[in-house]
């Protein structure tokens, strides 16, 4: 008797693959593969960053011990590129990044922590921005991990000075929730919110702003920050025999709170707080369940007077923040691989010039070949 199971017909296979059990199995396998790939990528990234740190450390130590100048870095780059076959990874410019990285973070344990969080390209961006400020370097590194920012998003947040905007709202958090919760709420807010992805006319009204934000909900959520999930727009709240419609409703998974956002085109007015307080009470009564915490309100205006906003929030017991929004700050990011940094050794300009001339020559040759091919046809 055969020890192998009998082969099923095509019809039996079709039945199996249509079943929930089969689909669940495939999903489990795909999830396992994705998790394994992610672990492998993190391990490779950690190894690469630690390698670069150790190279920078060795170069730095040898330069200090032997009194070598920066010209030697270019020669090291040539030898490493030739022997390893990786001219980009061990370019002169990248070696300077490695050396600067090692100088900024001399403690290998700290480097191990940083290397497990973000990739080398992120480190290059941070070295350009905060080579003299390790606290901000580490702050943006942690934010990158928490929000899973790609390199260009990190560049954008640095450009928009997120560290100055986060927690800068006028609020009553400290008066209505515990100290730790107040800090957590502040960290989830900012002032101003920058909606640089919007294109609004000068006569835009609240409904136009609301529609534009919903149309680009992905960028809107990125600007709001991690944890926000869109719950509804103009969601009906039936109170008594009347319906009320808050502009935007979110649920924050980390805070375990609903977040009501009211959009205003114009300056803050004290009566906005009363309306927001009413919305929060209604949301808590109708939507809050289980271990959900008290809902939070964010009033977004184009400007506000801090004294007026603080007085309007006084003796209001629902957590509310007053902030501003702007849509006219454009983030101009350099193309990938391009930096505004001035080389430490101006002789590097000759190398850059040579690469550019070579690129132009290759492109010119491609155009000539293409034209010749078209003529032949």
Short description:
This protein is α/β, with parallel strands linked by helices and 377 residues long. Helices cover 56% and strands 12% of the residues.
Describe the structure.
Helices cover 56% and strands 12% of the residues. It is α/β, with parallel strands linked by helices and 377 residues long. Strand 7, helix 14 (271-286) and strand 8 (293-301) form a beta-alpha-beta unit. It is globular. The N and C termini lie far apart (68 Å).
What's the layout of helices and strands?
Elements (H helix, E strand, L loop, with lengths): L9 H8 L2 H47 L4 H14 L7 H13 L3 H8 L4 H11 L3 H14 L3 H9 L2 H4 L4 E2 L1 H4 L2 H9 L5 E2 L11 H10 L1 H8 L3 E6 L3 E3 L2 E3 L3 E5 L4 E7 L7 H16 L6 E9 L4 H8 L6 E7 L21 H29 L1
Parallel strand pairs: 2-9, 7-8, 8-9
Antiparallel strand pairs: 1-9, 3-6, 4-5, 6-7
Looking at CATH, which topology of the largest domain would you report?
Trna Endonuclease, Chain: A, domain 1
Which CATH class of the largest domain?
Alpha Beta
Number of strands: 9
Give the count of structural domains. Answer: 2
Just name the CATH architecture of the largest domain. 3-Layer(aba) Sandwich
Mean pLDDT metric: 80
Cα-atom radius of gyration: 28 Å
Share of residues in helices: 55-70%
| Residue runs with pLDDT of under 50 for 5 or more positions | 330-353
What is the count of helical runs? 16
Run of helices and strands: HHHHHHHHHEHHEHHEEEEEHEHEH
Q: Into which percentage range does the β-strand content fall?
A: 5-15%
Main pleated-sheet profile? 7 strands, mixed
What is the approximate shape? Answer: globular
Through-space gap between termini: 68 Å
Assign the structural class, choosing from mainly alpha, mainly beta, alpha/beta, alpha+beta, or little secondary structure: alpha/beta
